[in-house]
Amino acid sequence: MKSPINAGGKNKSPRKPKKKYTINDLSENDRVIYQEIVENVLRSSGIKHAIVVEELKKRKQQQENYKDKIENSTRISSILNVNRSSIYEKIRVKKPPKEIVYDEKLLEWIRKNFILNGKAKGRDALYKIYKNEGNFVSTYVFQKHYEFLGIKSIAYKKKGKGTPKE
Q1: For the chain, what is the HEC assignment?
Q2: Region (Disordered) spans which residues (predicted)?
Q3: Single pTM value for the model
Q4: Distances from the Cα of 54 to the Cαs of 20, 49, 90, 112, 166, in angstroms?
Q5: How far apart are CA 73 and CA 113, in angstroms?
Q6: pLDDT tens digits, the chain, 166 residues: what are they?
Q7: CA pair distance 165, 107, nearest whole angstrom
Q8: Distances (CA, A) of 110 to 28, 39, 100, 106, 128
């Protein structure tokens, strides 16, 4: 059976799947590292994919301290089913989310104009009015202030089902 030909005249052949490496493809040093990583993970409670990634990251970052260095990180990451680029990322401590400092003038302006317009104008319309008055603030900041007030335009509220047309 012939493969389909596109308008450009080139044959469309499917991509060959990436070669899946096995433990036998690893060098002697990488086999030792693989075995140590698997044993460390098995000792710890609960086997999760994230644990393997963390172990591999630590080994890659501290490989100066080890006599056995990772020679081919592509193959070892293929065997462990880990994204190779995730090995090189530094282990970061998560920062707590920043608290938004709300501008009282902006909150008051939104509240006042929302009531003046009979609760019919939405956030985007209010933002355009605010911007046209010569005030400059990002849409994200305006959205956060709008959500903080907890107001909702009546123009966007869902209407109930009408009577049937029959």
Answers
A1: CCCCECCCCCECCCCCCCCCCCHHHCCHHHHHHHHHHHHHHHHCCCCCHHHHHHHHHHHHHCCCCCCCCCCCHHHHHHHCCCCCHHHHCCCCCCCCCCCCCCCHHHHHHHHHHHHHCCCCCCHHHHHHHHHHCCCCCCHHHHHHHHHHHCCCCCCCCCCCCCCCCC
A2: 1-23
A3: 0.39
A4: 22, 9, 10, 52, 64
A5: 59
A6: 555 555 555 666 777 777 777 777 778 888 888 878 877 776 776 666 677 677 777 777 776 666 566 667 777 777 666 777 766 666 566 777 788 888 899 889 988 988 888 777 788 888 998 999 888 899 988 888 888 888 877 766 666 666 777 6
A7: 44
A8: 67, 59, 17, 6, 12
Structure tokens at 25: 């493809």
Token pair 């409670």: residue: 45
User: Which residue type sits at 100?
Assistant: I
